[in-house]
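dude i think i finally got it to work??
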Amino acid sequence: MTDVGHEATTAATHRQTQIEYVVLCDSAQTTQEGKLYVLGGGWSHIFRVVPPAGAPVAAPPTQFAIAASFLIDWLDANRPIGIRVTVEHQDEQAPLYEAKAQLTAGRPPIAAPGDPLRALIALPVLMNFPAAGSYCVRAQMEGAPADEVVRFQVGDAMMAMIPGQ
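look at this
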């Protein structure tokens, strides 16, 4: 029952297109059956390997993955929806990593009319962080009410060097 003077919330006025979650992990995979496999997920600190000062080798890139779930409103099915995932330094510089894509969710025959549809992604990332410090992953989705931001710290781990090299 709706109070007098208050508008009832209906499926037509309340869209369910949104970013459900973003997780930082060591590795992630999705399947055609709609499953997400995550290894070493949920961290907020990672290390970049740096060579000792004056070493003749470059720092190797840091490897990790970004897993995300996007909910798509029943009424937004069967049309492309743009998404963007970036890795950024928290001082709002240009993104260090960017992935753009379009998701299209169909209505499977077993879905109940009106239920949101889920699209999962797993992005492997191989990148060089310019310095230790605070970073974030930002996920954006066309039609979503807000970005999803996951903050994390990058620390330095000294690269082991063989003496005489």
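The first strand starts at residue 18 and ends at 30.
im so relieved honestly
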